[in-house]
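Backbone shape codes:
***
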Amino acid sequence: MRGVVKRFPGVLALDHVNLSVKKGEVHALLGENGAGKSTLMKVLSGAYNADEAEIEIDSKKVEIRTSSDAKDLGISIIYQELNLTEQLTVAENIFMGRPIMKNKFMVDWKKMYDEAQKILDDLGVDINSHSLIRNLGVAHKQMVEVAKALSINSRILIMDEPTAPLTNREIDTLFNTIRMLKARGVSIIYISHRLEEVMQICDRATIMRDGKNVTVVDVDKTTLDEIIKFMVGRELKEKFPKVRVPLGEEVLRVERVNAGKQVKDISFSVRAGEILGISGLVGAGRTETARAIFGMDKKQSGEIYVQGKKVEIRVPLDAIKAGFGFATEDRKGEGLVLTMSVGQNITLATLDNFGKSYHLNLNREREVIAEYIDRLNIKTPSQNQLARNLSGGNQQKVVLAKWLLSKSRIIIFDEPTRGIDVGAKIEVYNIMTELVKDGHAVVMISSELPEILGMSDRVLVMCQGAVTGVFDVDETLTQEKILYYATGGDRHIA
């Protein structure tokens, strides 16, 4: 790809970008949120038409105007949000839109299921082609996407944040699949903010910043710190800017909360100025606990106290009134209204502050929105930009702005840095630090153990819906110790 230019209203998303990928190479595409990575891949996969571009495959110029053009050229993309139809079978998803036919009018169902099974078996994954997609786990769904790409003989496979929803064991399986595809001569373009994985699986990396090329590096000849410096344009001295502040009074106490099958008798407390990290494996019940506390899911029993007073939380509005904010892990589905503007999302939970009924003080609202856009360094052409047009890191900042504006005493962060770049992560950590300095209580759910250890004052560990340990963060608390209790080790309540 040479000289790729893509403009949106008010934004030059790609400014004469180049990308070169070799046969059988795993090539990382790196950069902060908003650097232009996804836009470039949407041009390559036919989702966007570039304003200017030269694209060559095997030294031959090609035109890519639609996704069908891309598929015909052997280009497939696996998005972070998987593109499968839940109520159909694995085989039906693999061959969607191009079923194997007996004749002009009849589908050859047996051959189609057999062909799908052959592709799955070649991948070395234990998936039955007759299974319904809705009955598969996330890792297996992702493998179905890979199988779909292989079914059209893809030569170039784009993977966008492929490991975000996976466990460590599932990541190992994915990496084995990537190595197998690489050995077959498939070229893989790998987009990820987990730079440790890039160092492990990729051959070269193209680094972008602000819609432009920065450099191309051989992964085995560079370091993580060098890559970060190229991405953000500066050196990040402190990966986890944790500041310990004197703890104040107890702000939140949760006693014996039960909700569904994944929240069993949960109790904990958080003090002003404290970050309580909640750790555990996928399915441990961490998010379900947060949802029950915030009133998103119904709880069967248990009590919640805010500043020593019992509060009844049946719906999220009760939680907001009680002083809670909840930055959900599903920022697109639950944290934002994507079809509303950045400004409207920021003030969504606090409209009462700007007037009553039909009489809003719009000038005051715009002033406050501008203040929070500036305070959180949200990159947007204007406060009227639709939330769906922002990068993931900036969308996350809009969610945080909404809860900061609500003056919540207790803020729950569920996977606060998932899918955002290293520079944006530091900004989120700084926001959390400012919150605890101001006396807020923070609950942080994270699957990233370095993040848990780097930002928490105490860590609550869960396994199969129950608390198995609560620990102060000090030199004796290690990732191994957390994993021991996350996999059902002896209960230890500090």
